[in-house]
Amino acid sequence: MTERTRIDFPSRIGVWWASDTWPMAEAQQVARDIEELGFGSLFLPETAAKECLTQSAAFLAGTERLVIGTGIANIHVRLPSAAEAGARTLTALHPGRFVLGLGVSHGPLVERALGGTYEKPLATMRTYLERMAALPEQIEPGVGRPPRLLAALGPKMIELSGSHADGAHPYLVTPSQTGVTREILGTDKWVVSEQAVAIGGDDEDQLRRAHLHLEVYSGLPNYRNSWLRQGFDESDLVRGGSDRLARALVGMGSAEQAAEVVTAHLDAGADHVVIQALGNSPTDDPRPALRELAKVLKLN
């Protein structure tokens, strides 16, 4: 067994939250509150709004122990050398507290929103990682390679996350799929799984939020193929997902019931789980739900 790349998670459960519409000073306060509640990380996405390395620097500077991760940094947004150099700089300033999650994104976003070209995802990612690794060691000397996780859903991308990176960041997967990821990667790579939850309100409202969450993803081939591999069928892939899909992918009910789904990922082999508290948009304030979950999960 080889030694894993260093990530100093203060606890095994973190948060996934999009802060794009928040003024940065206010978003930093949310991060401080997340840290105070006992969560071990804050992972943030990158779509077509705020740049994730800049946000990561602000969150790292505004907190003391919280691990900050990109979930994910879009490889079509920046050159491989810029991604590697930026990650090294953040790691040099905050050792053990930054995780560079990388993903190939999605054809519609890359081609329509970014004006790029979306080619074979696996080959594109492999080439990108190889070019990152070619950055000379004198860029932040002594830091070494910052932790890299891949947004890996299919078996070949999961394998690549083990051979060319430090593990995987599965998103919108069941605990069973977390177990598949662990089995492919073995014991010496990181598995950081995302789990959406909808608590508060009645069942109808929770299910509404779950379908709203799945609305965009249900139209993207990457996720549709992932769900088919996980045992769902075409009847589940309606826009917003079927009720069966929504209930399987989103922890609903009481805070205790949602926490059980989070814990199931840990039991299946995840090293760390990041909770996405669903509201009416990904940028809604997650703290009310997180306060309830922190108590149930005994984080503080």
TrEMBL record:
Designated name of the protein: LLM class F420-dependent oxidoreductase
GO terms for MF: oxidoreductase activity, acting on paired donors, with incorporation or reduction of molecular oxygen
Pfam family name, one: Bac_luciferase
Domain Luciferase-like: 18-235
Stored InterPro entries: F420-G6PD/mer, Lucif-like_OxRdatse_MSMEG_4141, Luciferase-like_dom, Luciferase-like_sf
